[in-house]
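pasting for ref
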Amino acid sequence: MLLDQERPHAELFTRGPEQDRWVLSEANGMDGGIDLADWKLRLTLADLYRDVALNP
């Protein structure tokens, strides 16, 4: 997972059904989130950026 340090944006690369391919999932804005399906978990950008001072 990659998190942008200037704006609420996340990128997650996971293995696709074909193990030789990567799948990109992206989330933008504080209301966005990334699903971690294997763990049945959703990470919201609001939680990930909770204590981060972002430039307006």
